[in-house]
Amino acid sequence: MPFGRIMEGAREDLRARSGGPAWSAGRAALDTVANARKLSVFTSLTDLARRLGLTRLAMIVGGRLAWAASLAPSREGGAFRGIERENADTALFAGCVMREAFGDTERATVRVLEHDGHIVSTPEEQTCCGALHAHAGDGERARALARYNIDAFAGSDAKIVVNAAGCGAHLKAYGDLLEADPAWAERAKTFAARIRDLTEVLRPRPMRSARPLRVVYQDACHLAHGQRIRAQPRALLRAIEGVTLVEIADPERCCGSAGIYNLSHPEISRALQRDKVRAIIDARPDVVVSANPGCILQIAAGLRAASSGIRVVHLARFLGEMADGFGSRP
């Protein structure tokens, strides 16, 4: 049963009856991620606030402000700007938050794909996938973003690789999202059939870590449940000499991120975060690896709150460091 699609439909109906979302911060978040300029400014401002110590001040103030500040992304290097290539066999869906806040992960994604023999193109006209809008019941905006992305990737029939679990699950559902639109239904199905998670494309490659590492792989819900991808990420990690993959208790339990659920329901999200962090600390890893930015931000914030120095990193960046001979940076 497509429970997620049913819930999104119900939220859209409730939103229509109420005249729109009641939570103003949620509206602002959705507007920001769908606008590249706004998202760039927001990411720059959160970086500046972090450098000036304003996020620490927010933590002292407490309440929802402190919780939101703890989850704010810290930009990895510069924003990602891809290159369009005519002879590519792989197109990269760069996303919104990934492109602005996880630039090093995006660049690592291209690198590991190229190491694997792929020629990667990044269509410039792509935009936010619309997953957060669909989750929040803004179906009209979600469908508009879907149409925009279908057009942006219409120049070839190459597979489309995604490195964010939530985006990938939603992109694979574009056929369902637009099935009632006769002008777009077939195009949406064709587009969705091209979507691949990064771990579905990469082949396990023998590599060596510069030092022995205990690694916890965090199953993102939208990857494990939404796309039934569990074995592939672990196979990529097990191929690395010196890496010991350690499982945690209840590994597929949500970390509490869940799109914007951590902002709309902070109390429940915080409880899930604490449970996940406790399980991670008990496993005594050197690194936590995940394939979803929301999980990374949520778990990193929880580990900081628990005074733990365990690093949390995207799978693509981890693999890129291994391929580049860095092992895993502290």
In brief:
53% of the residues lie in helices and 12% in strands.
Folded structure, characterized:
The chain is 53% helix and 12% strand. The protein is α/β, with parallel strands linked by helices and 330 residues long. It has a domain at 204-323: AF0625-like (Rossmann fold, 3-Layer(aba) Sandwich), CATH 3.40.50. A four-stranded parallel beta sheet has the order 2-1-3-4. Strand 7, helix 18 and strand 8 form a beta-alpha-beta unit. Helix 4 (54-61) runs antiparallel to helix 5 and helix 7 (103-115) packs across helix 19 (315-323). It is globular and about 50 Å long. The N and C termini lie far apart (42 Å).
Q: Which terms summarize this structure?
A:
globular, about 55% helix, 4-stranded parallel β-sheet, about 325 residues, Rossmann fold, alpha/beta
Helix run count: 19
Q: What is the β-strand count?
A: 8
CATH topology of the domain at 204-323, which one?
A: Rossmann fold
Kindly state the mean pLDDT as a whole number? 86
Output the CATH class name of the domain at 204-323. Alpha Beta
| Secondary-structure element string | HHHHHEHHEHHEHHHEHEHHEHHEHEH
- Tell me the overall shape: globular
From the 3D coordinates, which CATH architecture of the domain at 204-323 would you assign?
Answer: 3-Layer(aba) Sandwich
Helix content: 40-55%
Largest sheet report: 4 strands, parallel
